[in-house]
Batch of 3 targets.
Target 1
Amino acid sequence: MKIEETKLKGCFVIEPEIFHDERGHFFESFNQKEFEKKIGQKVDFVQDNQSFSKKGVLRGIHFQMGKYAQAKLVRVLSGKVLDVAVDLRKDSKTFGEYIAVELSAENKKQMFVPRGFGHGFITLSETSEFAYKCDNFYQKESERGIIYNDKSIKIDWQLAESEIIVSQKDNQLPSFDVAILELN
Ligand SMILES: Cc1cn([C@H]2C[C@H](O)[C@@H](COP(=O)(O)OP(=O)(O)O[C@H]3O[C@@H](C)C(=O)[C@@H](O)[C@H]3O)O2)c(=O)[nH]c1=O
């Protein structure tokens, strides 16, 4: 397993080692001992989520507030997505910056998005199946978000605006400037 920290401290890209043989292939999609050693912290995942999306569907940018904050270990089971993490830690040198990484069933890359980040992804292939582990439970009341096309974060989602599909809920999310007023 190869784990590399991104320019956003605490946010990692993980590439599992794939073992190929005549039957197909095998890989460890998660190994707690190795994972915690490489990221240098303990993480107790308590919830696994899975979502299916059509091309152009953009989910995000989401996070949960305060004690309900979630770290996420995300990966793609089929298709290809652009996965985005936005640093929302006010005391961070990279506050307000984002990273975008292509995750696909083919490259098998994963992203670890720590607490204190906003997270979103867009499906670039015809469909995608997306799976992730969370270290805190879903708590509807503490759900927050930032509008995907925020003018100060300026995320390049790789698809034309006309191809992007967002839920009504996500389309009404506030701008970065407004969303951060509530953060510590
Ligand atoms: C996230 C979540 C949703 N739900 C329900 C609420 C709702 O009725 C339905 C769909 O929820 P959403 O529209 O929020 O799903 P979605 O837009 O896929 O939300 C997810 O987006 C990505 C980017 C993340 O990072 C996740 O943490 C999560 O926020 O599923 C749960 O029951 N448990 C959960 O953990």
Note: Helices lie at 32-39, 168-171, 176-179.
Target 2
Amino acid sequence: MTQLEHIGPPRVAPALITARGLEKHHGQTHALRGVDVTIRQGEIVAVMGPSGSGKSTLLHCLAGVITPDTGEVTIGDTRISDLSEDQRSLFRLTRLGFVFQFGQLLPELSAEDNVALPLMLGGTRRARALVQAHSWLERLGLAGMERRLPSELSGGQAQRVALARGLVNAPAVLFADEPTGSLDSLTAERVMETLTDVARSTRTTLVIVTHDARVAAYSDREIFIRDGSVTSPALESAV
Ligand SMILES: Nc1ncnc2c1ncn2[C@@H]1O[C@H](COP(=O)(O)OP(=O)(O)OP(=O)(O)O)[C@@H](O)[C@H]1O
């Protein structure tokens, strides 16, 4: 690209996730109190806040894992609240990726089968799914470990396998809930570098729930939640 091509108005990516007026109760607990969130295509966003503030509840509403009591979530041109439960499952399987704190790899499956699983559940044949799984494992520095069981991997390696599994279906959005919470700080940094490098190079939108400022430092933007409401970063730093 020449320097001239940089001249002109800044290119602003379109909104990919729009949530409006999200309210959610868990029993007596008012976990979300009218949350509005807009996340743009390719953005890396950290959702931060104290324990119990509603971060995971927000992530689960955005990803269609749970439905809000009121309010709407749109991803791309799909209004999640309009989908039936089966349609939401299929949408999650084919359009979204997930990474959790402890990886949640299936212990009886090898690394390659764990990564291939979302594709196979979506109807891809095993041989073809394994080709893509191998390519992601190699990209994440795990070539040669395809046949290992999760118990034969280090914590950082297992979390990379979980990243590969989250990315294998080329999701529009990768949701990560405390993705480095079970790792030591050096391994956590390496996993975050890998995660954000891959997200940037593939233009994958990344939503990370974390209470760790070192993890949030890898994001483009932070959304702070306190007592179920979004607060501004300036307000948060004053609290
Ligand atoms: N399934 C549930 N049943 C009852 N209460 C729940 C349930 N899930 C969450 N809560 C409550 O809702 C509130 C928000 O929980 P949430 O898990 O979203 O917070 P969080 O910010 O992700 O917390 P943490 O950082 O500790 O994981 C908390 O008070 C929690 O106890």
Note: The two ends are 45 Å apart (CA to CA).
Target 3
Amino acid sequence: MRMNAGYLRLCGISRKIGNFELRNISLGVERGEYFVILGPSGAGKTLLLETIAGLQRVDEGETWIGEINITHWPPEKRQFGFVYQDCALFPHLNVKDNIAFGLKVRRLYSRIVQKELDDIVDLLGISHLLERYPATLSGGEKQRVALARALVMKPRVLLLDEPLSALDVPMREALRDELKRLHRLTGMLMIHVTHDFTEAMLLADRAAVIVDGALAQVGYPDEIFNRPQSRAVAEFVGTQNVFQSKVINQNGKKFVQFGKSQLAVETDLEGTVNFSFRPEDVVLSSSRHPVNCLRGVVDFIARQGLFTRVVVEVEGVGVVALLASNNGSMYALNPGTPVFCVIPPEVINVFPDK
Ligand SMILES: Nc1ncnc2c1ncn2[C@@H]1O[C@H](COP(=O)(O)OP(=O)(O)OP(=O)(O)O)[C@@H](O)[C@H]1O
């Protein structure tokens, strides 16, 4: 079994449930990190979070916190906070009693604890809601209460399962900023599950992508976004331009074959590989450039608000470019317009063909 560095460590965790299986997950998360678990719907993100919380038993593998093996500890002994997408507040209790519920269960409700409760309520700016009942709260207010309820217990780790996905866009953005602020102020280790890559980019110190029950990539959000290491991750982060090819060595310089053309790349890999580049990194030009320039014809244009997606057919293959809709050159493009796609070597991500 592989052991990892980190404060919270998952070592070779496997869990079969119905037809689905979490497979050999090894992961180390540091104290104070904001760690995001990303992945498409049904990838096993919630199951993984529930396994970390101790709500799901494991079939194989171990969970450690510091030097302690907590694999068989029940959830309450782990002292992890859990915030669900739908908040799961008690409908018959007002906000104050919802927040204090866990403290009362632990028989901790005293004047000292009242001070902590007041601090959390202030931190989340919800003092005006204390007498209200969950049914009268907006989605964002409910989620703030759910966060307060988890934080007042001073958890070792705060687990957040899609905490923003039930909210409308302005509320989602406000609460996303709030999470960032809470993390900065508390320094708590937070593990946040989402399928929204933008959320991950804005919140995460590091992230893991899970695909089909297995870890596909762990790293800084920037790395995952710009340097996906598998086709599945490239597709999940919206790379759109992903091709299989082979590396060609010429006088010490490396190229990948694209149809009859060759594109200069920066890579240590050899042989059969995949390469990808983001649509935002494709430059469309009416004139030929000396390096990494593919001649094509505009096939399709779709305006998507601030951005416009242009598909250029190059040697029978679609290359996708994303341009700012107010980009002057946009107005000269129509289906059938000849155009050059320029893809600088440094934006081409070459990864193994697995
Ligand atoms: N109790 C269960 N019994 C059988 N299958 C289950 C059970 N719980 C989850 N699954 C299955 O396990 C898989 C992973 O579920 P999970 O909820 O972890 O996915 P997810 O990545 O969180 O997806 P989403 O983003 O849609 O919430 C799914 O195919 C789901 O149907």
Note: The two ends are 23 Å apart (CA to CA).
